[in-house]
Amino acid sequence: MMRRATDALFFSYFEDVDRWWNDYAPSSSGPTGSPALRIPRDAPEGRSFLARIARESVGLASDDGAPCGVLDLSRWLSLAAHGDTREYRRYDAFAINQLSGKYYESLARRNGFELVHFDIVTRVDVERLGAAFAPRWVMLSSTFATEVPNLHDAIAHLKRAFPGVPIVVGGLFLVEVEKALTKEQFPRLLASLGADVYVVSALGEASFLELLRASPADLPKLTLPSAWVREGRRVVKRPSEDGGVPIDENFVRWDLLDPSGLYHIAHTRTARSCAFECSFCSYPANQGPLTLEAPQTLEAELQALTRCGRVRTLVFTDDTFNVPAPRFKELCRVLARFDFEWYSYFRSQFADEETVALMQDAGCRGVFLGYESLDDRVLRNMRKAVNRKAYERGTRMLKAAGFATHANFIVGFPGDRPENVATALEFVDDFGIDFYYFSPWFCSPATPVAQEKERFGIEGDFLRWKHDTMDSVEAMDLCEGAIGAARESAWMGDQSARSFWSQILLYSNGLARDEVKFAVRTFNRFVGRDTPRAQMLADADVRRVGELLAAREFPAPPGSSWFRDPSQAAPLRAEFERAP
Fold it and tell me: Is 131:88 a contact under the CB 8 Å cutoff?
């Protein structure tokens, strides 16, 4: 089969498929469906990132009860609906059009280049894509990477699949890691990862376009702002910095994109960075100064979305979509002129009657509420510029308007105490919050609080820390104890269920809010323990979840045809190639 030539392949996320039990892919260390992530829950390494994933997931056992592997929500939903995990992509929140890939695909097409974008790939997918495509450049976003080994694994598989093709890595994970390492450590890490170019900036457009305009043979002499380039066994930083491109000029032209690559839900944005400087958050430091898009630009993007005709639901990734308040009201008025439903992050303390009414008219269906804490002392330590009373007032308005809600809390920030978890659980039930999640505080060196360690008695970094009121082990225990602990609100995992995004995927494919809660609660009943497949499938609630899913048409996400058995994918692949 002749490989398809293209200027670049772009991957938004490389999934470590071997974390999960899979019926469709051979394990890297054994046959299909062999154990993936098996760390005893009481083992010393149980506080690792991978063990947290395992403890938030459903354990699958053989008929004799021996542990086999773990399932995230998407694979469990596939099991409930189809009897195996082969259709998990239909229920995976990464089916939603990822903004980074669509943004760069739009930028490439506006400049006369072809970029083929895949939202999510695994090592199995990459191998098949290597046999199907002949790109000049292979590009990988690090933004959704969780650990350095995950990124190293992704690059290794890309190099094997595309020998001789330069691998370009960008994204916010690299930006964060650079702040955590010394000037000597960071280039050594980049050299060890194995890629050819690293664009370490939230604004990588200039380097992106320069690469597309050049031949890989020209790499040694390219300017490449904000980039590190491999020279032999080391990497060297190019001296210039990327200033980005004007946000109002480079919104996504959805009608220029390959329609076969579009799902009916899409991420988009109207701003870069954040209006606040919360001390636990590295987002403003990584993204740079706040840059706001004009309401007219959103209108132009919505017109492009209408012309493309594929997208019905929008997910705004703006960290503070409703701030500043006057601008948000104008954005709502723009949205009201179109026929899209949408979801966003929302600061509840800025809710008022006019804002809520505008959101309803504009098609808002749900909001993500980053409360982080309900303890006023902790909120002051976080510099959240809010108190519990303001949260309560705004939350009442949002719930009265009928919006779906998801609440997030951080456990273990300096000043936090164990009893705050019980307080938060009571709050989500009393205020009718649909879903909630507790995550342990992540002590990133890139956050403002990292400069206040002496003030709070902080020792350690990342997920190994202690301070005057708590340590990371206690925080993780409290988070795990909150799984399914609310009376009415449903726990929705971030590590195993992708939190708010999975809710949006299920809502937008036809499930009612109560049906989504029922499915998630049923999943939660099996979280943290090993259950034989036959026993799980015989459970009445699991059968009901399967019926709910079967009654809807969850489409296979774009690109799925490339990832099946080649003999099965051939007709779909031909259809993909014929698409304009």
Answer: no
